[in-house]
From TrEMBL:
Keyword Cell inner membrane: no
Keyword annotations from UniProtKB, A to Z: ATP synthesis, CF(1), Hydrogen ion transport, Ion transport, Membrane, Transport
Name of the protein in question: ATPase
Species: Vreelandella rituensis
Topology in the lipid bilayer: Peripheral membrane protein
Localisation: Membrane
Lineage, highest ranks first: Bacteria, Pseudomonadati, Pseudomonadota, Gammaproteobacteria, Oceanospirillales
GO MF entries: proton-transporting ATP synthase activity, rotational mechanism
Functional summary from the UniProt entry: Produces ATP from ADP in the presence of a proton gradient across the membrane. The gamma chain is believed to be important in regulating ATPase activity and the flow of protons through the CF(0) complex.
Organism superkingdom: Bacteria
Gene Ontology terms: cellular component: proton-transporting ATP synthase complex
Membership in a protein family: Belongs to the ATPase gamma chain family.
């Protein structure tokens, strides 16, 4: 169906405006991902320092003995998005959490879910999961520490000050090979045997033997809390990086789609404009011929 010149002009203006919005969103996503990526790298350096402290603790006191038995309950902390325009970012992670949570619930007396982001809360509700606490995602890289501190405090409140009384899993989306993203569930507590064995097997390389003046339980609790904080911080930063990457990829697809539609509309606009010009020229020629062939009065 041939459209009028006015309708095509309005569509061209609308698509041009939409393309400007999409391009702006793409630029913002690319800019926002950079500070979160730097935060993820910086927390890795802090986490290495914490692990060095744990190795020094093990070298001084011997292997860490943990309580035997399965924790009474399981807690899953899910890191998602608070904004849209990122495709099925939240839904994919929610499906994985639901699939992994069912075995946890069967093995323990209960499973509790803590959620980051309103969009993730909706995605989890669609999978039949009801988060008991919803945290606001960081608005900038400076807010990651605030979020990590709030989550660690909430975990302490749930456990009543005993970190090994609960099983904690961090669910987030991390970067994969070839620019892809993948959802992962990372066990956090209790400390895994592989993690503890790695601390015990790696010798203290310095000639100065580690020592401390704090009570042993207090020092271990402080190191463990720092380890939990660094892990939560990294998961939050990684989630924000992949969220902006998902939004950037989606905006690139949208921009390409809008460009294709704009080319089509502009082609139709040129065709209709040419037809209008041709019609006007034919009217002028027909009018001229009619006046030239009109018989003159004598």
């Amino acid at each position: 169906m041939m459209q009028t010149l006015e309708a095509l002009t309005r569509r061209d203006e609308t698509l041009t405006s939409i393309r400007g919005i999409v391009h702006t969103m793409k630029t913002i996503s690319a800019i926002n991902a950079v500070p979160y990526e730097r935060a993820a790298r910086s927390i890795e350096a802090y986490h290495r320092t914490v692990r060095s402290g744990l190795r020094a603790f093990v070298a001084r006191t011997g292997p860490i003995a943990l309580p035997q038995g399965e924790p009474a309950e399981s807690i899953v902390v899910v890191f998602g998005s608070d904004h849209g325009l990122c495709g099925n970012y939240n839904e994919v992670l929610a499906e994985k959490v639901q699939a992994e949570t069912m075995p946890m619930t069967a093995a323990t007396s209960g499973s509790r879910v803590l959620c980051v982001g309103a969009q993730m809360n909706d995605a989890l509700a669609g999978q039949g999961l009801s988060p008991e606490s919803i945290f606001l995602p960081p608005a900038s890289a400076d807010g990651i520490g605030r979020l990590a501190g709030s989550i660690v405090t909430r975990l302490d409140d749930i456990a009543g000050g005993e970190p090994h009384n609960r099983k904690v899993t961090l669910a987030f989306t991390q970067r994969a090979d070839h620019g892809q993203n993948e959802p992962v569930l990372m066990p956090l507590l209790p400390l895994g045997q592989a993690f503890l064995a790695g601390l015990a097997e790696r010798p203290w390389k310095s000639r100065s033997l580690p020592d401390y003046s704090m009570p042993t339980p207090a020092l271990f609790a402080a190191l463990l809390r720092s380890h939990i904080f660094a892990s939560v911080f990294r998961a939050s930063a990684e989630a924000m990086v992949t969220e902006n990457a998902a939004r950037l990829a989606l905006m690139q697809q949208a921009e390409q789609s809008v460009d294709d539609r704009l080319d089509e509309v502009k082609g139709q606009l040129r065709s209709v404009r040419q037809d209008d010009i041709t019609t006007e020229l034919l009217d002028v020629i027909i009018g001229f011929e009619a006046l030239r062939n009109k018989p003159r009065r004598t």
